[in-house]
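Project standup — Tuesday

K.O.: blocked on the structure for the chain from last sprint. Re-posting the sequence here as requested.
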Amino acid sequence: MGKAIGIWVDHRQAVLISPKAETAIVRHLESDIEPHIHSSGGWRSGGTAGVQSITKENTADERRKHQRHAFYQEIIKAAGTDGELYILGPGPAKHELVSEIEKIKGSNIRIHAVETCDKLTEPQITAKVREFFKDQG
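H.V.: unblocked you, prediction finished:
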């Protein structure tokens, strides 16, 4: 079995935990993903303000997509190209990370489980990751 790593991820940050050491190794990665901002106001009956709003939103969505890709690549680089992963988190970021990992050809990364969980403190994440890999090994 390769190195075991637990990854708690959402769109703002990732916490990587290597539980096998006597003291777990914890690494935090912050994302640069812009939050989704809903513009105030509404559609105007005349003029091009609505079209401009849609174009700006599409541009912002595309920029966020590239920011997410860069963030997930940073997580993958930090986790390494071989190992056993347990991925958890509250939203869609965990599944987006799995999709990025699956795109890597020739990778020796093995995803054991992807689990939905609420926001957790660092000690709670560490305990959950240790418990998971204790049961696996």
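K.O.: great, moving the ticket to review. The chain has one domain: 4-136. DSSP finds three helices and five strands in the chain.
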